[in-house]
Amino acid sequence: MIAVFVVAVVVTMVAKPSVKNASSIFLSADEGQPLADSIMKIVKVSCMDCHADGGYGMACAHVNFSKWSSYSPAKQADKANDISKVMSKGSMPPKKFRDNNPGKVPTQAQITTISNWAKSLKNRLTIVLNSIQ
């Protein structure tokens, strides 16, 4: 099934040259992209204490930034959307973490950056998926 999907992507890219650049956003149908430097800077400070290898088990069950690149593009887009929502609501990082680590609390500008990044992943995935239909 994966091979059929990859062939469909390649055929679509050849058949629709105008979509070729949009389709090349992801390395393959199975592998997502590493975090952009601007996002990694925020995540390292505000998230990775819990959401990375060696972090809090329950937190890593939701998202593990050490494994981000291994997530599929669709999973990355879904996780990024979830991250944006909880950060925008102020529920991440949790209150106890915020109280104990005020220097690690993301600023409103950083939350906006995360939100824009999440939207861009979703938009890019939509472009790729539409290009193969």
Description of the molecule:
With 133 residues, the protein is mostly helical. 61% of the residues lie in helices and 0% in strands. The chain is globular, with a radius of gyration of 17 Å.
Topology of helices and strands:
Blueprint: H1 2-15, H2 20-23, H3 37-46, H4 57-62, H5 73-89, H6 95-100, H7 108-131
Helix pairs in contact: 5-7
* Anisotropy-based shape: globular
Segments where pLDDT lies below 50 for 5+ residues? 1-28
User: In sequence order, what are the helices and strands, one letter per element?
Assistant: HHHHHHH
Number of helices: 7
Report the mean per-residue pLDDT as an integer. 81
Number of strands: 0
Query: Helix content range of the residues, please?
Result: 55-70%
Please state the CA-atom Rg, rounded to the nearest Å: 17 Å
Structural class: mainly alpha
Query: How would you sum up the major sheet?
Result: none
Structure described in brief:
This protein has about 130 residues and is mainly α. The chain is built from seven helices and no strands.
